[in-house]
Design brief:
By secondary structure, the chain is an alpha+beta fold. Helices cover about 45% and strands about 10% of the residues.
Length: about 70
């Protein structure tokens, strides 16, 4: 998930804290589930930098992405 999606979610919910606390149905209404379904069809699983599957080399850069695809 990149900056554009984060900004769109922030715009829909007013702030990122509200996004974090949103229910699945609220997130689904923003089209996030469509993006997740597309990733699933492509055989890609998104992982955050705290997940053991997150690419170690990405953690070595100054500003790593919050989410990385695996698969």
């Amino acid at each position: 998930m990149g900056t554009v999606r984060f900004r769109r979610l922030e715009s829909n919910f007013g702030d990122l804290e509200s996004v974090w606390n949103a229910s699945y149905n609220e997130l689904r209404a923003t089209g996030l589930d469509d993006e997740m379904a597309a990733l699933e069809r492509a055989g890609v699983t998104p992982v955050t930098w705290n997940h053991p599957g997150y690419p170690a080399r990405l953690n070595e850069i100054a500003d790593p992405p919050a989410v990385s695809p695996t698969g």
